[in-house]
Amino acid sequence: MNNVLLIDDEEKIRSLLKRIITLEGYTVFEAETLKIAKNILDRESIDVVLCDVKLPDGNGVDFVKNIKPFYPSAEIILLTAYGNIPDGVQAMKNGAFDYIIKGDDNDKIIPLLNRAIEKVQLQKRIQQLEHQVGKQFRFEDILGESPLIQEAINLAKKVAPTDATVLLLGETGTGKEVFAQAIHNASKRMHNAFMALNCSAFTKELLESEIFGHKAGAFTGATKDKKGLIEEANNGTLFLDEIGEMPVELQSKLLRVLETNEFIKVGDTKSTKVNVRFIAATNRDLQVDVNEGKFREDLFYRLNVFSITLPALRERKKDIPILAKYFVEFFANKLNKKIQIITKDFLERLQNHNWKGNIRELKNIIERACILENSDQLTISSLPLELQTLNLKLQTLSAFDLASVEKLHIQRVLNHTKGNKTEAARLLNIGLTTLYRKIEEYKIISQS
Q1: Tag placement on the chain: N or C end, fewer CB within 10 Å?
Q2: Domain 313-392 adopts which CATH fold?
């Protein structure tokens, strides 16, 4: 579901707009000040901001300029009781999606909001496609010598040449999309399209349109026919990640495709025939969801023709040195760093970590270490604070000692990013608001 942030100090206006917007199927967050709004933006994934121009702690036009660099994917619509041309021009220059007058333009809010949401979803689609470009994984690219990962690879190799539907199971970050691509690239469909979609990234309506496509006029904003990913993947493979998050209403439509190789676009009256291989993935226990009525039993059995469970990284710690070496070489080359040595203590810290984020978490930590390291080796000091202090008796350290280590680490990251706080927050894996609070708390001076 798309999230909308409503910023207005007048409670009656907020209540009215919230009721109107909620009826359109959006989730609405409210803020009466810019300070509260910043906290919500840092905490929630906001798609569109509806912001009053005159607020107790600032001006909406300036607010657009201040937050747009930190939340570039969010579209901002400014609302004002007294519109003027200079403010409107400046608002658009600052990155606002639009600037409208409250009261006179109330009938424009929902169509405008729909257009803003459509733009946000288009940007997400572009990012998703960019993420897919150039990444063509094969079984040879899957690293690991532990029995569990080798068993998963062997199973995948056996099913790859067939057209059987595959269900990939495992925690987030275990490499399910890598396996899906490897299966596709070892199949007879390898020269045709591989399309991937995360089912948790869209509302029900948008997910239906993304998968099945739509006809012009099917809903507000549908100005032309659009192919869905099923049609785009014809004669190829469609990978549906987080399949457990698919709304029950759409599960029946997916089941029809699996059973008949036909589907109906949103707003269409005739069916379209396709030849698509499906690979699905989830980190949920679908059998439990079936028992609880959250997932269709018939769809579960259709998807679960051939299941492969990918092991968590903590279950294959023998592979951590292999993975670490690969990521270090990759990022050192990408960043033009001369890192040639991984110290024993560095690897021991990695192998003792629990890795709740699995390979994805390991990759992020190695990238950050390579960015920060200026020598030819990675040591314990190259790691984030929580890994540096792993297995140490933290109770012997005073609050001042820990604060000093944290301050020094934040300072190093800010120096590396030349004061770019958005990038620093990403590398530190903390929210931007948290970073600003730490900078103020420790009185850190960063270069602009």
Answers
A1: C
A2: Helicase, Ruva Protein; domain 3 (1.10.8)
